[in-house]
Every structure is written in structure tokens, then in C-alpha cells.
Amino acid sequence: MARGALCRGSRKGFTLLEVMVAMAVLAIAGMSVMGMVRESISNTQYLAEKRPAFWVAENAMTDIVLSQRWPGREWQKSSTVLAEREWFIRSRKVKTGSDDLIMLEVEVRQKKDSESALASLQTYVLDS
Hints:
Blueprint: H1 2-10, H2 16-67, E1 76-82, E2 85-95, E3 101-109, E4 119-126
Antiparallel strand pairs: 1-2, 2-3, 3-4
């Protein structure tokens, strides 16, 4: 009886296999967490660029509507500085089905020759 108690009492630690399985599980979990953190940082940087671009687009659209100087049908390009960055703006007037109603488009890019816009706005106004 003393011998059985001795055998059961001497196994107090983990086996090498148990430790290796636990390490593998932790490594896999750690890699997935790192992937989520990397994606979160990337999204945060993208949104940090996108928010000021929308401010620039809103300011440009407001200037056009308040001045009532409609851009032409071809893209008109300009630039402005906001938050110590230069932003490139394109605006144009689009004909609609109504003679009295026009659509205005404004796009903002961070680079002059960038294909995709960070911000894009459209509105309809009466052409008086």
C-alpha cells in the first residue's frame, strides 16, 4: 500500500508532451492576436488619413455651393493645405435629367496622381 501511494505522489509536474502542446496552443493564439493588432493599426492609420480628407471635401463643396460658381463638366483641379498636408481636389458639374438641377462632385486625394480618392462627395443644386 505504501508503494502505490509513493507512485501517485511522485507525479507532480507536466510531461514534455503536455508542455509542448501548451506552447503550440499559445503560439497559435499569439499569432492570431498579432494579426488582429497589425490590422487594427493599419485601419487606424487609414482612418487618420480619411477623416481630414472628408473635411477638405466638405470645405471645397461648401465653397462651391456658397459662391455659386459651378465648375465645368471637365474635372477642375486645385489643392489646399490642411493639418500640415497638401490635399489635391477635383470638382466637376454633372448634367442631370432636369435642366434646372445639376450634380456637383468633389474628390480629394492625398497624392496628385493617385487613382483612388480618399474622400468623395456629391450634391444636387438648382442651377439658376
